[in-house]
Write a structure and sequence with these properties.
The protein is built from nine helices and two strands; from the N terminus they run αααααββαααα. With about 250 residues, it is an all-alpha fold. It has one domain.
């Protein structure tokens, strides 16, 4: 990945499928197959992991290690949401914020796996004569922009639902309107680009160290990447919570 996404046409050699038009977005053959595969893989692993734990949940007692991990993640995101949105409204947005956090974290961690072991096999897809390099779905702007778009729609709709026309007036009343429209551009842009650039930089750092010293140093870098993966999932979730909190605040 890292700027060289794998188009579906490289995997599916059927012109009747690849030529299907997607309007202004090109054709089916232009779809970033690697991003879709990595994103779906992250979602499947999350769903399977949660399903495997849900059948063994207990109300009393410590529960198993899987329950402890899920409860820790839930409590962590709940504390973020409660602090940013407020105790009376945060539960409404908690499912979305938990989904965002786990998907971003899962996608980030999935990109850290030692894919070079597979990338040099003869059957592995090639791009421009080179073995295709696998990276996290969050290194694709389409993924981070979609996540940012969900965040924007959520806080805009939330503001309208809580404050109605008073919230909508903010976008048309001078001198507040220019600032509100600027926020509408800056907020999703910072959400999308921060996640994209940081995770991409981590991927590039590991790739560089793999070429310089393929054993010991990359292991330390991968440990650092795990930390960054968690931080970026936290930052994205926190900022989304803050934006929602500002939209539903009582001062509007």
């Amino acid at each position: 990945m890292l700027g060289k996404n794998l188009p579906l046409s490289e995997l599916v050699h059927d012109p009747s499928i690849n030529s299907i038009a997607l309007g202004p977005f090109g054709t089916v053959g232009d779809i970033h197959a690697d991003t879709v595969i990595m994103a779906w893989t992250a979602m499947v692993l999350i769903i399977v992991g949660c399903a495997s734990v849900s059948s063994n949940l207990v109300v009393q007692g410590a529960g198993g290690p899987g329950q402890a991990i899920l409860e820790s993640l839930y409590t962590f995101v709940a504390d973020i949401a409660k602090g940013a949105i407020g105790e009376h409204r945060y539960k409404t947005y908690l499912p979305l914020l938990c989904a965002m956090f786990t998907f971003i974290l899962g996608s980030n961690l999935l990109g850290i796996l030692p894919f070079p072991v597979l990338e040099h096999q003869h059957w592995w897809p090639h791009m421009h004569g080179e073995h295709f390099e696998v990276a996290a779905a969050t290194t694709d702007f389409n993924t981070t922009a979609a996540l940012a778009g969900i965040a924007v729609l959520t806080y805009l709709v939330s503001g309208l639902m809580v404050h109605g026309g008073e919230y909508a007036k903010l976008f048309f009343i001078k001198p507040v309107a220019p600032l509100e429209w600027l926020d509408l551009i800056v907020r999703p842009s910072t959400l999308a680009f921060r996640l994209l650039l940081v995770i991409t930089a981590d991927e590039m750092l590991r790739s560089s160290f793999l070429k310089i010293c393929p054993v010991f140093v990359p292991t330390a870098v991968m440990g650092f990447e795990i930390f960054i993966a968690m931080v970026q999932a936290f930052v994205f979730t926190l900022l989304t919570s803050i934006y929602i909190g500002v939209a539903v605040a009582e001062h509007h």
